[in-house]
Design brief:
The complex is a heterodimer of chains A (357) and B (327).
Chain A (H helix, E strand, L loop, with lengths): L3 H35 L7 H26 L7 H19 L6 H32 L4 H20 L4 E2 L3 H8 L1 E2 L2 E2 H19 L1 H11 L1 H6 L4 H27 L1 E2 L7 H11 L11 H20 L4 H34 L15
Antiparallel strand pairs in A: 1-4, 2-3
Helix pairs in contact in A: 1-12, 2-7, 2-8, 2-10, 2-11, 2-12, 3-4, 3-5, 3-10, 4-5, 4-10, 6-10, 7-8, 8-10, 11-12, 11-13
Chain B lengths: L1 H5 L1 H19 L6 H26 L7 H18 L7 H25 L3 H20 L9 H8 L1 E6 L5 E5 H19 L1 H11 L1 H6 L4 H27 L11 H10 L11 H17 L10 H22 L5
Antiparallel strand pairs in B: 1-2
Helix pairs in contact in B: 2-13, 3-8, 3-9, 3-11, 3-12, 3-13, 4-5, 4-6, 4-11, 5-6, 5-11, 7-11, 8-9, 9-11, 12-13, 12-14
The chains are: A mainly alpha (357), B mainly alpha (327).
Chain lengths: 357, 327
């Protein structure tokens, strides 16, 4: 008798997960169809898909980092700041150590050094975020708003606000190169997404992220080292942001301290579209992948219709709110249905007419 | 005295005076009346914005869309009144700007109060939607010629003295507007049921509902008021810089947030005062405007703002965590 009772909610939880994904698939198919219909000549071309897959990996990496933080119930608004700081550091190293006619033998170690410095700085920046969030128990929004300014601020001080251009070809390949016909950044993004998915679904660390996001106090009592898990979460986010930064400057061939500030809005948008719960406890890498591609289709389609950037900002903003509202209405309806199912109405018996009041 | 030492406002005031003395020692030009009055004038816009944000923070949320509301209000208002070569009282443009602010505030209010969504994320969306709206559907050009009443306002003074052969010192009208709105906000928070409701909401949402407050009413009021203030602040900003620039203001939200947090408003809600906020605004204004007097290049500004914000949130928390807590 007692066997099926605990099982039902689990089954329902799995169904819920699929629900979220199903909805997202529906949205992306609708957007795909709309863009094809609106740009019949240009959207369904190989060229368009290749150019799309060059541009979404940056945003995707930032969004993945943000997703990790959001699953714990936090947020990392500093990802763009980290990307800019780390890429400026890498750029300054490359430009100051390499001349236009440096021998290839000198190029490779410098590139390795620049990339290593960028990634380590990203992890360190994330460590700062994680320490402030977990030790002082300050809301991550505030912490990362502040550190965003600090990281970008350091990048501005280092460059005095000027762009740092001109990198060796070997480095540019990370942003513009192709391997087996597909863009290199796409491989980097997919590799990162695979690792993140593996960590989230197959490791103790991944599980503890979900537990912390669902109920931090319960997670602590269950013996999860909440502080160190949080620090490692923000460090991972910093690492992914640094990787995004490297791709950014390799693609544009210049590092700027204030590049891509609107990415933060888009990264939040991707996560909400992906169904990552802003209050923590739920999120899937598949959703993030799908949402990034969906947003990129929207963006490319708009470009083809000659919308300017301002129109895009406007649409992003409206889209963000519509998604929030839609998510809210869906969960509300589900909760109502679930609570109705959880407390089945007593069978109408003639002698028990008005049980309430 | 003991009571004074426990007040956050006291520490902010001490830091403000200490920092001012430091700047004054390095560069005596700081303490000229001219500089002090200029600082007061430039604190007005951040100040008016911060009064609105204070309410949001007390209620336990974070809003970042107010600069965009200010931009929409200042741009549409100046576009209209410059277009018709308006000659008349400056109250009418202010009324229009405040009205636009309230209108945009009501969009925030509706989404936040009706669907119970987190303000930060909603305002991230409306920030970009409001500014994008102006730039997409109205115009991207800077309005260089404001209407005459606006120009008159930009030259107006609330108080002036000196003269008689010597230099004339004057306090700008905007300072008076800021003070007036600060007093209104103070009365509102301290003496009205609505104001107490804002504190209650930030303290404990459930208890607020049980105490008989209508939460959606409080939330609606907060975001309408934020819009109202943002509209006025936006128009004042355009008068100060004597142009209507649709790219202005957005980006100042962190300065405002830093000012309110420095002033003792706690993230998570329930605490914050108008006096503390005004002191925080003055501190941020002095810090931002004195970097140059201290000989620090202007590209350090962003770094300093961030550090100030972090220190402002970490320090009170250290005190809070160290103090013995009831078990």
């Amino acid at each position: 008798m007692s066997e099926p009772a605990p099982r039902k909610p689990l089954l329902r939880r799995i169904l819920t997960a699929d629900d979220n994904l199903n909805r997202l698939i529906l949205v992306s198919v609708a957007i795909f169809a709309a863009m094809v219909a609106l740009n019949p000549d240009s959207f369904l071309t190989l060229r368009n898909f290749v150019s799309m897959s060059y541009s979404f990996p940056e945003l995707g990496l930032l969004a993945l980092g943000l997703a990790l933080c959001m699953i714990t119930g936090g947020i990392d608004l500093s990802v763009v700041g980290i990307a800019n700081l780390t890429s400026v550091l890498a750029a300054l190293l490359m430009v100051s150590l390499l001349g236009p006619d440096s021998p290839p033998a000198a190029v490779v170690p410098v590139l390795a050094l620049a990339i290593a410095v960028a990634l380590v700085t990203g992890v360190l920046a994330g460590w700062c975020n994680g320490m402030i969030v977990s030790r002082f128990r300050i809301h991550p929004v505030l912490v990362t708003l502040g550190t965003w300014q600090v990281f970008s601020g350091i990048a501005i001080i280092l460059t005095k606000g000027y762009a740092v251009p001109g990198f060796p070809d070997a480095f540019l390949a990370l942003g513009n190169g192709r391997f087996l016909g597909l863009p290199v950044p796409l491989y980097l993004f997919l590799a990162a997404a695979a690792v993140v998915a593996l960590v989230l679904n197959r490791t103790r660390f991944g599980l503890s992220l979900f537990l912390i996001g669902t109920n931090e106090t319960a997670a602590r009592f269950a013996g999860i080292p909440v502080r160190s898990v949080l620090v490692r979460t923000y460090m991972s986010s910093g690492f992914l942001a640094a990787l995004a930064g490297i791709i950014m400057i390799a693609r544009t061939n210049q590092a700027k301290a204030d590049y891509g500030e609107s990415y933060i809005l888009q990264a939040v948008l991707v996560n909400l579209l992906a169904g990552v719960r802003w209050s923590g406890g739920y999120g899937r890498v598949t959703g993030v992948l799908l949402a990034v591609v969906t947003l990129q289709m929207l963006s490319s389609g708009f470009n083809m219709m000659r919308f300017n950037n301002f129109a895009r900002d406007f649409t992003w903003g409206v889209f963000l709110i519509l998604i929030m509202v839609a998510n809210h209405l869906f969960t509300e309806r589900k909760r109502r249905r679930e609570s109705a199912a959880a407390t089945p109405r007593p069978a109408p018996t003639p002698n028990q007419e008005t049980p309430s009041s | 005295m003991g009571r004074l030492l426990r007040q956050h406002e006291f520490y902010v005031a001490v830091i403000l005076v200490g920092f001012s003395l430091l700047v004054g020692l390095v560069n005596p030009a700081f303490f000229s009346l001219w500089n002090l009055f200029a600082l007061l004038k430039s604190s007005a816009v951040i100040g008016i914005f911060s009064l609105g944000l204070l309410l949001v923070l007390i209620s336990g949320e974070i809003d970042i869309s107010f600069p965009a509301i200010g931009v929409v209000a200042l741009y549409l208002t100046n576009l209209f009144f410059s277009g018709i070569d308006y000659e008349g009282t400056v109250l009418l443009p202010f009324l229009m700007a405040a009205g636009i602010g309230v209108l945009l505030g009501s969009i925030n209010a509706f989404v936040i109060a009706r669907f119970q969504l987190p303000t930060l994320i909603v305002s991230l969306g409306t920030l970009s939607a409001f500014q994008g709206f102006i730039l997409t559907f109205v115009d991207t050009r800077i309005i260089n010629r404001l209407s005459d009443p606006m120009i008159d306002y930009s030259r107006s003074k609330a108080l002036s003295f000196g003269g008689e052969g010597g230099p004339v010192y004057s306090i700008h009208t905007s300072v008076l507007v800021f003070l007036l709105l600060a007093v209104v906000t103070w009365i509102l928070l301290r003496y009205t049921t609505l104001g107490r409701g804002v504190y209650a909401l930030g303290g404990d949402r459930q208890a607020t509902r049980r105490a008989g407050f209508r939460i959606w009413k409080i939330e609606t009021f907060i975001y309408l008021y934020v819009g109202f203030l943002a509209g006025i602040a936006g128009l004042i900003h355009s008068a100060h810089v004597r142009s209507g620039n649709p790219f202005d203001l957005v980006g100042t939200e962190l300065n405002v947030l830093a000012a309110v947090v420095l002033g003792g408003a706690r993230i998570g809600g329930g605490r914050g005062t108008v006096l503390g906020t005004v002191l925080g605004v003055l501190l941020i204004t002095v810090m931002n405007n004195s970097l140059i007097l201290l000989g620090i290049p202007s590209y350090w500004q962003r770094f300093v703002t961030g550090m100030v914000l972090i220190v402002a949130v970490v320090l009170p928390q250290v005190r809070h965590l160290r103090s013995p807590q009831p078990a």
